[in-house]
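Hi U.,

Before I forget, here's the chain from the pilot set. I'm dumping it here mostly so it's searchable later in email.
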Amino acid sequence: MITSRRILFVIAGLCIIMGGAWYSTSLKEIKIPSIPKKTCLEHNKEKHIQKPQVELEHLKRAYFAGGCFWCTESDFQKAPGVLEVVSGYAGGNVINPTYSDVTSEKSGHRESVEIYYDDNITTYENLVRYYLMHIDPTDSGGQFYDRGESYQAVIFYGTEEERIIAGRAIQELNEAKIFDKPVAVNVLPYKNFYTAEAYHQNYAEENTIKYCAYRESSGRDAFLHRYYGDRSWEELIGSETVSRSETILHSGEGDEAIAEPLDFSRFVKPSPEELKARLTDVEYAVTQKNGTEQPFSNAYNDNHRAGIYVDIVSGEPLFSSDDKYESGTGWPSFVRPIDPRFVVEKIDKGFFGDRTEIRSRYGDNHLGHVFADGPAERGGRRYCMNSSALRFIPRETMAQAGYGEFLSHMSSE
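Structure:
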């Protein structure tokens, strides 16, 4: 009996020794995230305190989707001029969606953030640039670990100016050739935002260990360090990089500084993939597939501001507000182009007869058609254009945008 017990003790001891050796060896093979990371723990506690709505009413708002909103929220809480960041869901079709609704990929929403910022400290352009440098802008299927429509990168614009700013930043990033793929960030009109559940708010601070483990294992910070490092936007795109829609100002004073004339003869049309990333579905269908937008419910049919209408892709000057008139058709109509050098007429043969199509010369984008039923006293022609093919530049910003030479084509009133 004693001998049997001794044998059992010996066997148990051997098992413990062997098990310990196996456990020590196995631990070496287990990849444990090296947390906490400094970037994860850099919380601005003031920005995490939910502020009364009355304190936020005077601030500007911006909306971005950058994959997991825990990360997007935490990143923007470190941005200068940002006073409040709220995680939520934007752009979908379901009222008051839940997290399950959104991640089921059936609601059309993206995990997004609502940003309240002080425009005396920062600008919308700065926020767009900051956003692009904190995501993988080439990923069209989501962001890092997270896949699907609900995690796609989107800039939601609220005004035409915001849309132009977003498009320009994307264009600059593409032209800098930092990535081997084009920027795939969608630029979509803002239509709704719903605040996410309470447990998603301030997640990085409230659940730091889990958040840091998720963030590191997702590869997000490794990607940001590889492509952006500590560079500024100007360093990133290169001092020599100039957007096709941006110009260098001559030396001058104040608002009288005039930009160099834009040279469209060197315009290189982006690839279809790039255009799909830059344009909305309607803009792409109209300009690249010769489509026609809905009458009356488009951007410029009722626009009465003074300014110039340019090609949405190439920026070529097309029409002046002085030549716009109310045709009653539901589309913006003009009696003549501002400079015939930038438009091309093509015969469009159709089942119900021939029409004359209007395209931009260097961009080669479909704009609309011209008809012989315009005001007789103004030449008798009606250039019926699609708003989706145009970008409007107000008269007061034309010189700075490079279109100063066309100010003489419109009245001063």
